């Protein structure tokens, strides 16, 4: 099992930036894909971005050009750089790990392990 712990959330004004981090431990060598997801109150969890071990990435249309996913394999850490934040980005953000994947995916049911989440709040 992989343990994941997010950090870096907070409150920011619209147009600002935040950088989320996710520290992984456990069987991280068996992880092929990692992703960021978010869930706003009253809404379903949605995929934000994903990165495969080969470095390929995928983003939700709503964050393309504003968010960047990256990973530091040596430190077992995943990042999400969020720029030009909007109020609609307000949500709890989760990182997740998937052991078997052929390409990056933001399809949540495919992920095996999840962190506890970090809150991001964007105000006008």
Describe what this molecule looks like in 3D.
By secondary structure, the protein is an all-beta fold. Helix content is 0%, strand content 52%. The chain has no helices and eleven strands. The chain has strands at residues 2-7, 10-13, 18-26, 33-39, 46-52, 57-59, 67-72, 77-82, 91-98, 113-114, 118-123. Strands 2, 4, 5, 6, 9, 10 and 11 form a seven-stranded mixed sheet that branches. Strands 1-3-8-7 form a four-stranded antiparallel sheet, with no helix packed on it. The N and C termini lie far apart (40 Å). The mean pLDDT is 94.
Quickly count the helices: 0
Q: In total, how many beta strands?
A: 11
The helix fraction, in percent, is under 10%
Mean pLDDT across residues: 94
**N-to-C SSE string, H for helix and E for strand:** EEEEEEEEEEE
> Span from first to last CA?
40 Å
Indicate the overall shape: globular
The share of residues in extended strands comes to over 45%
Structural class designation: mainly beta
Low-confidence stretches: none
What does the main sheet amount to? Answer: 7 strands, mixed
Radius of gyration: 13 Å
Concise summary:
This protein has 124 residues and is mainly beta. The protein has strands at 2-7, 10-13, 18-26, 33-39, 46-52, 57-59, 67-72, 77-82, 91-98, 113-114, 118-123.
